[in-house]
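pasting Flagellar basal body rod protein FlgB for the record, 125 residues
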Amino acid sequence: MGYSKNIMESFLVFESVTSLAMNSALDGLALRQRAIANNIANVNTPGYQARRVEFENALAKSVADGGGQVDAQTQNSTAPTRLDGSNVNLDTETLSNIDTVLRYQFATQSASGPFNSMRTALRSN
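structre below
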């Protein structure tokens, strides 16, 4: 009987603020990764404005309010432009890429924890 209760509690993971927040974070980080890839692909395109993805502040506020779900916003970078009108900086994009990859890995490991518990509970039965 105890196993059934654990399994049912594990299914509540899908509706928790934590789960919604992790899903929003993963979506935001994936969008940021695509924006970085586009920025790098256009590093030599005259007039191209780098894109930035922001969601962390909105996500923190949503979690504090008990929601946990936000949509990431993409905006043009306000960084200074080069003579050709582009503002893509390869060093900035590379560092942002590394940061985003590490955050995504951390988030996926954190998000998988409850599912590993559910898998263990199901195997134990």
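The beta strands are 51-54, 73-76.
The chain has a mean pLDDT of 85.
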